[in-house]
From TrEMBL:
Protein name: Endonuclease/exonuclease/phosphatase domain-containing protein
Classification via Gene3D superfamilies: Endonuclease/exonuclease/phosphatase (3.60.10.10)
Molecular functions per Gene Ontology: 3'-5'-RNA exonuclease activity
SUPFAM superfamilies in alphabetical order: DNase I-like
Length: 367
């Protein structure tokens, strides 16, 4: 494997989509992990890859603002997870407001409509959470038309599921499926895209539920199509180990840990950084083993693909899918690798009118 992967060349006849957990800004064990030192790598990757759409996860308000300053052609759609949009950026209550923002290239796309919901049993209540989710989790939705087109060509969903509760992840995906079906009724001919950090591996329940919402996993679709270029890399979350996280030595313990995680075991929110932290993680896991249920149902599909960051689609033809920005030199843009899917622009669904019967949902007007 090369030390780092180079972004594929930008093509005017294609539409590229990126899913990227850029890691929140906070105190880090090592200086190179600070967002102030990672920002340039994130911006460079987006700029050189040239996507039309980027689904961001784990971005705090200040991070999104600074990223857009370096990427001025991109517009931003998003909302603070805890419902603090009216508060000043310096307000401490916004410290942990994760965005599930969508960046879109304003030179290629016009925003037609957008929405933001909380993945809870009260999705219109700001900052709400349910099913044991440790923090509010959100879904950002946006409908676009291609420049110089009429109607809607694209609808995009971007999310970030709970990391602690297996039940919460399953229920949150069921909520996403509900919204996918609702928007499909409004825009029956549009191309649908979904990006996110699902904190689950392909083959586990959230992945299965996403497929039941009529969406297709871009990685699986590309792998089954001989005309689609699939650049294999086994992981998307690397926990600051970079390209080494994809080695067979690392994948076996990752497989075991994600299987336990999928069965309901709560894991640390960050990779242990010392022997003491490793010992504590093992102690916490062992204390929960008696409560494990459905272990075999939580098994990932394979050791060759253990992705928690996914791109789904419906109504387009993928040309290539790859895990990007893979490095071993320590200059990591995040503790996740971005995932990139390239689609044939000619395959994007044709334009059509909006169903005004649903206008009360604010789906048919620009907000």
């Amino acid at each position: 494997m090369p030390p780092k992967s180079e972004p594929i060349a930008v093509d005017t006849d294609t539409l590229d989509v990126v899913s990227f957990n850029i890691r929140y800004e906070g105190v880090e064990a090592h200086e190179h992990r600070l967002f102030s030192n990672r920002l340039k790598y994130i911006a460079k990757f987006v700029d050189t890859t040239g996507p039309w759409l980027v689904g961001l996860q784990e971005a705090l308000p200040g991070q999104v603002v600074r990223l857009q300053e370096r990427l001025p052609r991109f517009g931003i759609i998003g909302y603070q997870g805890d419902g603090h949009g009216a508060l000043a950026m310096s307000d401490t209550r916004r410290k942990h407001d994760f965005h599930t923002s969508i960046l879109f290239d304003r030179e290629k796309l016009d925003l037609v409509s957008h929405d933001h919901v909380w993945l809870s049993d009260t999705p219109r209540v700001e900052g709400s959470k349910s099913w044991g989710s440790k923090r509010p989790r959100t879904l950002t939705i946006a409908a676009f038309r291609l420049k110089d087109a009429a109607g809607v060509n694209l609808v995009m969903f971007n999310t970030h599921l709970d990391v602690h509760s297996a039940q919460a992840r399953a229920e949150q995906v069921r909520q996403i499926g509900h919204h996918v079906r609702a928007w499909r009724k409004t825009y029956p001919k549009a191309t649908f895209l979904a990006t996110g950090d699902f904190n689950s591996l392909n083959g586990q329940l959230p992945h299965q539920l996403m497929l039941e919402s009529s969406l297709v996993d871009a990685w699986d679709a590309c792998g089954a199509d001989s005309s689609c270029a699939l650049v294999h890399f086994p992981v998307t979350f690397h926990g600051w180990f970079g390209g080494y996280a994809g080695s067979y030595v690392a994948r076996v313990p990752e497989f075991i840990l994600f299987t336990l995680h999928g069965s309901g075991i709560e894991m640390p929110t960050s990779v242990p950084d010392s022997i003491a932290e490793c010992v504590e993680m093992i102690r916490v896991i062992l204390s929960q083993l008696p409560s494990i249920t459905g272990l075999w149902q939580a098994l990932p599909q394979s050791l060759t693909r253990m992705h928690i960051d996914w791109i789904f689609f419906d109504g387009a033809k993928p040309l290539s899918v790859f895990v990007g920005d893979v490095r071993r030199d320590g200059a990591h843009s995040s503790d996740h690798f971005p995932v990139v899917a390239r689609f044939a622009l000619s395959s994007v669904s044709s334009v059509f009118g909006c169903d005004t019967a649903l206008d009360s949902m604010s789906l048919c007007t620009v907000e």
